[in-house]
Amino acid sequence: MTKIQFKLIIYQKFFYSKIVLLSCISFFILISCNNTIFEISEINAENIKISSSNEENEDLENLIEPYRTKINNLKEVIGYAKNSMTVRDGVLESSLGNFLADILLTEVNLIFNEFSENQIDFCILNMGGVRANINEGIVTQHDLFKVMPFENKAVVIKITGKDVLNLVNFINEENKAHPISGLKIVYTKNELNDVLIKNKVFDITKNYLVLTSDFLQNGGDNMYFLESPIEKFELNLNIRDAFINGIKRVDTLYSKKDKRIIRI
Amino acid sequence: MINRRFFIKKTSASVLSSIFIPTYSALDQKNNKIITILHTNDVHSHIDPFPKNDISFPNAGGVIARSNLINQIKKNNPNTLLLDAGDIFQGTPYFNFFGGEIELKLMTKMGYSAATLGNHEFDNGIKQLSSCLKNANFPIINSNYTIKNTPLEHVIERFKIFELDGVKIGVFGIGIELQGLVEKKLYKGIKYLDPLEISNDLSHKLKNDENCEIVICLSHLGYNLNYEKGGMCDLLLARKTKNIDLIIGGHSHTFMEKPEKVKNLLGDDVLINQVGCFGVNLGKIDFYLSSKKSKTESSLINV
Fold first, then answer.
1. CA pair distance B53, B55, nearest whole angstrom
2. What is the DSSP letter of B205?
């Protein structure tokens, strides 16, 4: 901030001194340029960090307060994180992605098994859908709203082995750390080397049960291979709620990268 | 005779005015002006600052700190525009519970001049977006979505011309292709038009027909998404257009240390700037303008 003020003061001082000099010849200039056309002669730019340290602004506080009060109950503690987790600590997998996909798969299997004898094979979400970190220490519902702000629902679909291969190739090409659970993939450079589903060798002739979000299943984030499944089970379950229930169940959160998807 | 009388009259009026004008208007302000552009993007409903134990942005952001910073800068230069490049919504419970109302009310209080639409503005559908925008007492600008016969008709402006200290600033807005990003039912009736074509048309109009000294594109295309594959993004927009001075970007959450200078189709400089996300940074661009008579060969961009 001081830097900006300083720059502007210098600028103003410079011009006030010029005013004195130039006012002598102001006659001519004013006569000749009544309709001055301006153009850009110089541009200065900077990106300033905004940091909060006991800032005050009563006007804004008064506006925010009633809203903040209404969401205060979300500050209820639901668990404790032993380590901080983010989706940005790996190339093809991440600590937070692994944690979320694992917990969602566990939670949804509990519900799914109530009406199906089959187990879900694997879970895929999108990296872009995970919007915040989980920081070490207490974890609240409010934190989970920031991690997963979208009102997406869990959906289980049966897709062909061919579409599973499309999915595996998509990850290879995108090279992003989408949250995945139940799937192990090894790429050698750009080539697909090995795929294990629930620790069994992937069989392209078989169909697989995949857990994902309704957003992705409807073609979100260009995951086209989820769009036309053989069968679809819509679970009326908000994915954030599933995360919150899962976290309450495990109580202590811990996650790390375990090389489930690697490139060698 | 008549000519001579007219001449004398005119001259004396000019002399008179020249005596009085310098007493209330500083001469240099008549020939040199500073316009400050402040901007944010992808704030995503972040109203409260990050906690001190956050691993990415400890103690950063928050509307109170942002507002105080804006006010301080405006005090130094009242000729300031405050702009946002979209994705105002979605990211904290404030959006889940109140649907965007508080974000727009706060932006109004902070003195935002204009904003454009990001893809997440559509997260509750067009109808809700349209009614929520009543909380914004500033124009929402988009130039490349067809909104005719949708609830956004008459709510969104195609472009806006601001006049500060006699300087005209034209602002238009470019949104991203919603297909694949937003569920179809949420943006039903909206068609995405080619950003290059729209930008070239509008920037030409703003610069040459409306005589804007500064033309700004608020873009939610992303800085360089799929640039190598020829995908639409700010880098491509800057290179393939004319008449844009500044592209304020969003969507890709790119933390640029400083704006990037790119040559446009005419070989002129275009600035691209983007300040990451979540309201942890504020972009500040000062345009120094001088009267055309004292024109230097080319403008100096210190970035």
1. 6
2. I
As a whole number of angstroms, the distance between CA B35 and CA A215 comes to: 43
Q: What is the ipTM of this complex?
A: 0.86
Query: Quick one: which of B100, B97, B102 has its CA closest to B117?
Result: B100
* B134 contact partners, CB below 8 Å, separation of at least 6: none
Question: What's the whole-model pTM score?
Answer: 0.85
Contact A16 B102 (CB under 8 A): no
Percent of chain B's residues with pLDDT above 90: 80
Is a pLDDT exceeding 80 seen at residue B150?
yes
Other C-beta atoms closer than 10 Å to the C-beta of A107 total: 22
**Residue with tokens 């730019």, as numbered in its chain:** A45
Using a CB–CB cutoff of 8 Å, tell me whether A62 touches chain B: no
Residue B273 forms contact with A (CB below 8 Å): yes
Q: Which residue has the higher pLDDT, A54 or B74?
A: B74
Q: Degrees (nearest 5) of the Cα angle A23, A27, A33? A: 105
Interface test with A, best of B69, B122, B256, B270 (most A CBs within 10 A): B69
Cβ of A51 within 8 Å of Cβ of B65? The answer is yes
A82 DSSP assignment: S
In a 13 Å sphere around the CA of A83, the CA atoms on its Cβ side amount to 10
> Is B65 touching A (CB cutoff 8 A)?
yes
User: How far, in Å, CA of A68 to CA of B94, rounded?
Assistant: 8
Cβ A50–B65 below 8 Å, yes or no? yes
Beta strands in A36-179 (DSSP E): 38-49, 77-81, 122-124, 137-140, 153-160
Question: Please, what are the domains in chain A?
Answer: 1-48 (no CATH), 77-263 (3.90.780.10)
C-beta separation of A174 from A113 below 8 A: no
The counts of H helices and E strands in chain B are: 8, 15
Strand runs labelled E in B147-280: 156-157, 159-164, 167-174, 191-192, 214-219, 246-248, 260-263, 269-273
Check CB contact of B13 with chain A, cutoff 8 Å.
no
Of A22, A41, A59, the CB nearest to B28: A22
Query: Percentage of chain A surpassing pLDDT 70?
Result: 86
Are the Cβ atoms of B22 and A23 closer than 8 angstroms? yes
Q: Tens digits of per-residue pLDDT, B90-112? A: 999 999 999 999 999 999 999 99
Closest Cα to residue A133, out of A100, A157, A158? Answer: A100
The β-bridge relationship of strands A77-81 and A252-253 is: parallel
Helix (H), strand (E) counts: chain A:
8, 13
Decide if B152 contacts B196 (C-beta within 8 A).
no
DSSP label at residue B135? G
